[in-house]
Amino acid sequence: MFDMMKMMGKVKEMQAKMKEAQDKLVYITAEGESGGGMVKATVNGKKQVIRLEIDHALLKPEDKDMVQDLSVAAINKALEAVDEKAKEEIKKATEGIMPNIPGMDLGGMF
């Protein structure tokens, strides 16, 4: 028989684990690069850019547009990488708490 109280307890437990995992996202980092490594961006799991490195060879006024494009590309690559890491962390934190319900992806809840 379906036990509603037990299910509610599992939901509360899952919420607590999700919150804990989300709080840890600031410590997960990923790097993306572009221009053969001339521009590197590091972001955290909260999707905040925490470092941007630009090779000195690119710091010429005539290269401004290229530097901007390479910066955007590096940041986007880093954001994609950290998103995957964050999803894995959330999945690990909530593993075994809720039954495996087809079509229910908890990774998108943050």
Written description of the protein model:
This protein has 110 residues and is α+β, with helices and mostly antiparallel strands. It has a domain at 24-94: 2-Layer Sandwich (Ybab, Chain: A). Helices cover 47% and strands 16% of the residues. It contains 2 helices and 3 strands, in the order αβββα. Helix 1 (4-24) runs antiparallel to helix 2.
H/I helix tally: 2
CATH fourth-tier homologous superfamily of the domain at 24-94: Nucleoid-associated protein YbaB-like domain
N- to C-terminal distance = 32 Å
Number of strands: 3
Question: What would you say the CATH architecture of the domain at 24-94 is?
Answer: 2-Layer Sandwich
Describe the strand arrangement of the main beta sheet, using strand numbers.
1-2-3
Task: Return the average pLDDT rounded to an integer.
Answer: 85
Please give the share of residues in helix: 40-55%
Pairing-aware structural class of the strands and helices?
alpha+beta
The share of residues in extended strands comes to 15-25%
The CATH class of the domain at 24-94, by name, is: Alpha Beta
For the sheet with most strands, the description reads: 3 strands, antiparallel
Query: Which descriptor suits the 3D outline?
Result: rod-shaped
What is the CATH T-level topology of the domain at 24-94? Ybab, Chain: A
Low-confidence stretches: none
From the alpha-carbon coordinates, what is the Rg to the nearest angstrom? Answer: 20 Å
Q: Report the order of strands and helices.
A: HEEEH
